[in-house]
Amino acid sequence: MKIGNKKIGGEELFFVVEEGVANLGSKGKAFKMIDAIAECKADAVEFQVFNANDFVIKSHPSHKALSEIELSINDWKEIIRYTHQKDLLFIATALCSSMVAMLVEAGCDAFNINATDINNPDIIDTVVESNLPFFISIPLASEQEIDWIVERVKQQGTTNFAILHGQHTMFSNEGGIPLEQTDLGVIRKLQEKYNIPVGFVDHTPKIWMPSVAVASGANIITKHLAIKRTDKGPDWHICLEPNEMKEAIVLARNANISIRANSKQLAEGEELDIPVMRKSIVSAQDLQKGHIIQKNDILFKRPGNGISPDKYEILLGKALAKDIKADEIINLKDLK
């Protein structure tokens, strides 16, 4: 999979920071979020984009509030342009199919099919027909529903997509998803089953959770940001603040480097630990000059700046060139 100039599923981790609807209808707040996300060194920002009339029925209690915070087409064009100026990719979660064509025209880089639309052929087909890469978010989904949507998009000839594993309990559990319920082992199962990149939608409040997901095989991470959790904006209880997000991204990228290693290397500084932590060959008792060294004449003790224990056989049968005291390190120069 490829989004812009970013290859997804290769050696590099793709980290998306979710703005969601934290802007609450303010283009200025959207710009502020983009600034913060760029400072965090993410790869992309994800916005939820909707038209209230196409998203929910007018009699629904949320319709009025959504109508008040929806942004105009011109607003989205400016937001996408500003995102690109900040060297970020723009991922759109189009919550109604009527927004897809506008987003494509405005320069959107990719779509995310929201978990609430995993069984919605209108959104699915419209996103596929856009010819842009996309994610399929599978919180709330059964395995049968995942099979259904993957089969549907593949039948339409597209392969430029990925799955985002995760869970969603924001309306029933404000504490976020407990670690033991994140089912991270499913990530590799999905990769093997569908042969596509698989990421993780992080709906926990933990800084370290993206790193754990990366260690479980995730190629993509998405996580919510709040400028200040104390404002208690959308999804505030699982959001990270900018400094926390920055740390989470660094940790996740370092974890990604670590799991890509395919040969054992000494870590920086380990060579300094070797002479301190390992052992050397030492005399088991006082030995006189001319003594022929036997196996029971030697022991292995710290420090490790003498002859390595695995080389003990080179001493056996050799005569000492000097007296050696008990517990003294034996060196090659001490031999005849």
CATH topology value of the largest domain: TIM Barrel
For the biggest sheet, the summary is: 8 strands, parallel, barrel
- CATH class term of the largest domain: Alpha Beta
Rg, nearest Å: 30 Å
- Morphology call: elongated
Q: Considering the protein shown, what is the CATH homologous superfamily of the largest domain?
A: Aldolase class I
How does CATH name the architecture of the largest domain?
A: Alpha-Beta Barrel
Q: What letter string, H or E per element, gives the SSE order?
A: EEEHEHHHEHEHEHEHEHEHHEE
Total beta strand runs: 12
Strand arrangement, major sheet: 3-4-5-6-7-8-9-10
The structural domain count equals 2
- So how many helices? 11
Mean pLDDT: 94
Ranges where pLDDT stays below 50 over 5 or more residues in a row are none
Residue share in β-strands: 15-25%
Secondary-structure class: alpha/beta
Gap between N and C termini: 67 Å
Helical content class:
25-40%
